[in-house]
Automatic annotation (TrEMBL):
Gene Ontology MF, one: 4-aminobutyrate:2-oxoglutarate transaminase activity
Signal peptide as annotated in the record: none
Organism taxonomic ancestry: Eukaryota, Metazoa, Spiralia, Lophotrochozoa, Mollusca
InterPro entries per record: Aminotrans_3, PyrdxlP-dep_Trfase, PyrdxlP-dep_Trfase_major, PyrdxlP-dep_Trfase_small
EC number(s) given by UniProt: 2.6.1.19, 2.6.1.22
Keyword list, A-Z: Aminotransferase, Pyridoxal phosphate, Transferase
BP terms from Gene Ontology: gamma-aminobutyric acid catabolic process
Name of this chain's protein: ABAT
One Pfam entry name: Aminotran_3
Length: 245
């Protein structure tokens, strides 16, 4: 299959999606909210009829049991979320605490629309291997500007679970490095780790706390202890857990 044929299939797929009523929003057709509402306003029960129908449709494609309702993100603003049935609710969940500035914040919209940032959204750089030329400047002018005193290094991650996973890895690497006392890994360690066996994969235990939730990826779930729905049927790294003091 040549590149021309692939491009043709992609364009056909995009056209098909648009003609079937998929939410292919553009700035020319979308009217976004520009201010918070004064108060919540409920027009239907939740989920409303539109959400129920969309949940039913989604259920034919993937598991939709966890969906509470579908959202109109263009009408949501600040601390208020608006569902597809027009219900306006004060949002205390904020997309798993990932929206500290709320919905459609002007500064965030400006940043996304800035031509200097488009390459990052379009090309999805693999930052560990091929960072863009302005990456060092961006780190120094953003995250490192608000870093706690004495902390001069930063590693960016895609989400909270990614941060936990890589934090665990960094902890294990540091621990094992100290145990080797400067010696390189042995051939036995190098070979055994490829088949998940000791000594390359050491038998280490992580201390975690009851009722904690760190994420749903395998490592993060291993140190989470709040709901069985996050852990049932998954093999997990050993974790000693206790009540937080």
């Amino acid at each position: 299959m040549n590149r021309i044929h692939i491009n043709s299939l992609f364009q056909k797929c995009m056209r098909s999606g648009m003609t079937k009523g998929l939410p292919m929003s553009t700035s020319a057709t979308v009217t976004r909210a520009t201010a918070e509402p004064n108060f919540p306003e409920m027009k239907t029960s939740v989920p409303g009829p539109k959400s129920k129908e969309l949940i039913k449709q989604l259920g034919t494609i993937q598991n939709s049991d966890a969906v509470h309702f579908f959202v109109d993100y263009d009408k949501s603003y600040g601390n208020y979320i608006v569902d597809v049935d027009g219900n306006t609710m004060l949002d205390l969940f904020t997309q798993i605490a990932s929206l500290p500035l709320g919905y459609n914040h002007p500064s965030m919209l400006e940043s996304i629309q800035n031509p200097d940032n488009i390459y990052a959204f379009l090309n999805r750089p693999a930052l560990g291997f091929y960072p863009p030329g302005d990456w060092v400047t961006r780190l120094r002018s953003s995250l490192l500007q608000v870093a706690p005193p004495g902390l001069s290094e930063v590693m960016t991650m895609a989400c909270g679970s990614c941060a936990i996973e890589n934090g665990l890895k960094a902890m294990f690497i540091s621990h094992q490095g100290k145990r080797r006392n400067g010696r390189p890994p042995s051939q036995e360690e190098l070979q055994s780790c490829l088949i998940n066996q000791f000594p390359g994969c050491p038998d280490l235990t992580v201390l975690s706390f009851k009722n904690a939730l760190h994420g749903r990826t395998m490592g993060a779930a291993a140190v989470s202890h709040n709901k069985w729905t996050h852990k049932l049927d998954f093999p997990a790294q050993r974790s000693a857990n206790s009540f937080f003091p």
